[in-house]
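Hey, weird one. I pasted the TBP-interacting protein sequence into the form twice and got a warning about non-standard characters only the second time. First submission, copied straight from the form history:
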Amino acid sequence: MKFEELNEKIKKVYGKVRTIDDFHWHISDNLIHGIHKKSGLRLEIRIAESKEAADKIAQKKEPGNLMVIVVPGKETFYVNNGAFVLALKFLRSTIQDISDHIVWAGFKVVERDGALEQEDIYEYLGGRLIEHIKSGMVNGKDYIFWQFYKCEHCGKYVDIENLVRHMKTHGEDVKEWSEEKYEVLELSFEDKKVYNKFGKEVPLEEFVEETQDFIKEVFES
Ligand SMILES: [Zn+2]
């Protein structure tokens, strides 16, 4: 298939996302398929003639896949079964928001063909994304995501920067670990509180002391 042969609707939709280089785009006549480069997460962009048609497509969405359905009209924006149903004008910003909510959450060293390789782990914070869109919150301005490690010795969260030092106090050398899995938490500048991926507040007492200082510093800056 040649690019010139694509239908006009797909060209119009593709024209809105082609400069978002977080995704690797595959274009066909009825679907744009994006692969998030860092995480490998799959995103489908489909076009529907009406909201009703979009709702039918949304019901078929596989869990774990990302889906955006573009419908005619100017103001449509809602979520159905985790799929975004929206007007073309919201497409680009929504895809960027989706990308902002795919966050690095750790790594694992694996053996492959006799060599060692680091596999990175990413988490998609879809629940937070919907909440942020609803309340018009902007990444970097109203909130940031940060990686925290839940210490198995004291049961408290340590921020990624303080992990090495903190584990030393328990006699552990992080350098010897072949994997680390973090929990991604949200630091909200709006109310100066920390939230988990379900939107539940994580009280300051659940963090080790040095991390409490770090959080306070972030909120003061
Ligand atoms: Zn600890």
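That's the output from the first submission. The warning seems to come from a hidden character in my clipboard, not from the data itself. The domain at 3-100 is CATH 3.40.1350.70 (Trna Endonuclease; Chain: A, domain 1).
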